[in-house]
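User: Hello, can you help with two protein structures?

Assistant: Certainly.
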Amino acid sequence: MVCVPIMEEKFNLVEKSALKAIDHGADILEFRIDFLKSHDPYNMQRLIYDLDYPIIATNRLQKEGGFFTGTEAERTDILIKAGKYAEFVDIELHTPLKYRNAVINKSNSTIISFHDFENTPPLNVLLEIIDEARKIGDIAKFAVMPNTLQDTLTVLEVLIRVRDTIGISMGDKGKFTRIIAPIFGSPITYASLDNESAPGQLDVETTKKILKMIQ
């Protein structure tokens, strides 16, 4: 599935961008709640329900590449409320245990994510991270920054070895992995609509076109 992150500050703009992404071929949407100026639970639930489309609810902390500045209790409570109608909730592996478990227990399905915006950990370290994530969630996800071409191959090596795992090598060096990763087993790849949510994302139409050619 090709996922398009929706990153808007107002609910009406979220709906507008979501419909545009669907029209451009997105298979699933990532609702980036951390971009919103208001986190009114009723509006979040109504929006997800009304769209009636597969959605990943995500509320990123700043250290995880997001914009949410509240407490962990506030952040995860928002995820629980939004996740009631979402296909998946993306919760970070490094979230404190009691908050992480609360989100997992209240979600339909979960993506347990790990991010490193500076480096790509060694293969054995990544495999340990993914093993931990897969034990507690439905899908594991890791997004790492390559410093060499070998780093991008490490990401693909992980995907060869494990199932139900989204693997992303970010930045210009890793851009090709966003197309290749699905061939290696990644169930979801991320593409942009108007703005990148992470370094190296291709736009959704280009991503869909290349994947179709490869298939």
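That covers the first. Now for the second protein you mentioned:
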Amino acid sequence: MPLLAIANLHKSFVTPDGERKTIVHVPEFSLAAGQQLALRGESGSGKTTFLHLIAGILTADSGSILVGGSDMNALAESKRDRLRAENIGYIFQTFNLLQGYSCLENVLLGMAFGPGADRARAQAMLERVGLGHRLHHRPRQLSTGQQQRVAVARALAARPKLVLADEPTGNLDHRNAREALTLIRETCRENGAALLLVSHDPEVLGAFEEVRDFAELNQALKETVA
């Protein structure tokens, strides 16, 4: 059984003029344990919505999202939160760090929703991403590249089976983007996590052995054109 298996997934929103518009319509998609796949998609293609549906941040109108055999879309909100916390790490483009907390506290808080906060594990992950000397710094005291490293440590600290990365290098300069991508892929391999990354950056996509066009998966784009 694939780690992630999606079937007949639909998500629509109501536009300001009252029209219902389909954003995501993915008939089928799967990802194996440990697999690393990049999805190519332009802004507005629905790829962030797709990741949010997988993570249970949004609920689909219909369809199934099996994560480790459990259907994310069939669960109540509290159970979706638990499934996400125990199985999924999310790396956001804007990092989503809590500014009032230190690097170590950000990672510990991320772990608290899953198996529980483990200070030794959190510290080890920050050391792994090169921030062992910045444990007690707050995000505003870090460079953009360092903030991204905290986000990577937070996403991997709870040993998720699946890591979702939404344009994770979009706010970084060329050098930091290259380093962040290498770090994300290496830490996923070390932790046995599958990686699903979405990007429109040709250099980021070129680093992956497996790349798919989101436009091929998402029938909503074809329906819009039609």
